[in-house]
Recover the amino acids of this structure.
């Protein structure tokens, strides 16, 4: 079959600017299958090892006729084989070419976050669930005293945007979904951004104007924003904090947060509150019903509120609760 050389060319160009990259498919997922989950065709050519990686003296990755046994702990590339997603990312042209040669259906590339030289942080401004991430970001800046600098911005096919920022070396920023504010996901260490020019099932990612002139380099993140991003559970822009010793207080705070919703933010605040409930281990049928009732009191139809809460609980609660049962979700309306 004909191979599209554009994703490889774009990935190599990004690597030339210092970004570690790897191939993505049209669903934005890594294009190479895991060697621990699916059969891996025999390797006919040597895959240059990543700097510092263990490899045979010849520098070639040994052929693998089938899937490897599942490791006791998640493998992040220690086995020496490709197929570990963001942990395959490299700035070495030879490694990148070899990765894309093994992923003929790739239509884009991912950029690993948290790595030198930029220690990239991505702010994913997502408009789904009725969120207004730009307004939320402005409120966050006003509350904590920072203004985002001009930096690299990438338009996403869904109508949102990715903002690129850099962090100091040694600072770990964790991935999160709507924790910073409704509609703002964070991509940090162990996460990745879809590279500009990548084609997905939803459309193409493109650079937006407004970045400083010259090569695409992220601007330093403001110190006040870094203080919110660095710890795994920092205060969020609204006064809703977890009380591990008193789950009832946490639940009441989340319900107050939902009841304070204004038109245009009802669904996004409900989704945010339900996500926090799931993360605190409070996902239950009783709290789901109370959240739906609180949202309904602000004008959100009950069936829409129930769907939003169910979506949030599914995303944040464990897949299987103790005893092999699934976490409870609210009943859906018509």
């Amino acid at each position: 079959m004909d191979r599209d050389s554009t994703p490889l060319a774009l990935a190599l160009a990004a690597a030339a600017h210092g970004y570690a990259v790897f191939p993505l498919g049209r669903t934005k997922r890594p294009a190479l299958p895991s060697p621990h989950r699916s059969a891996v065709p025999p390797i006919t050519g040597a895959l240059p090892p990543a700097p510092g990686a263990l490899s045979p003296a010849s520098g070639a990755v040994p052929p693998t006729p089938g899937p490897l046994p599942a490791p006791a702990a998640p493998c992040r590339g220690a086995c020496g084989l490709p197929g570990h997603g963001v942990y395959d990312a490299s700035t070495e042209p030879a490694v990148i070419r070899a990765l894309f040669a093994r992923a003929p259906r790739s239509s884009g590339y991912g950029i690993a976050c948290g790595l030198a030289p930029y220690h990239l942080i991505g702010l994913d401004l997502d408009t789904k669930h009725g969120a207004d991430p730009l307004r939320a970001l402005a409120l966050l800046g006003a509350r904590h005293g920072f203004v985002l600098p001009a930096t690299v911005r990438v338009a996403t096919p869904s109508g949102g945007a990715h903002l690129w920022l850099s962090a100091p070396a040694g600072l770990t920023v964790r991935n999160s979904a709507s924790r910073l504010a409704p509609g703002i996901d964070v991509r940090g260490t162990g996460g990745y951004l879809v590279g500009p020019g990548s084609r997905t099932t939803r459309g193409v990612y493109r650079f937006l104007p407004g970045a400083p002139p010259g090569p695409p380099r992220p601007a330093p993140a403001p110190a006040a924003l870094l203080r919110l991003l660095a710890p795994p559970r920092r205060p969020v822009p609204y006064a809703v904090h977890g009380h591990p010793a008193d789950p009832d207080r946490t639940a009441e705070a989340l319900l107050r947060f939902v009841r304070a919703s204004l038109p245009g933010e009802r669904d996004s605040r409900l989704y945010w509150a339900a996500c926090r409930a799931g993360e605190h281990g409070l996902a239950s049928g009783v709290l789901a019903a109370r959240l739906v009732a609180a949202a309904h009191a602000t004008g959100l139809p009950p069936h829409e509120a129930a769907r939003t809460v169910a979506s949030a609980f599914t995303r944040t609660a464990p897949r299987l609760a103790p005893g092999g049962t699934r976490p409870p979700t609210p009943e859906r309306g018509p």
Remarks:
- The first strand starts at residue 21 and ends at 24.
- The longest helix spans residues 302-316.
- Residues 247-316 form one domain.
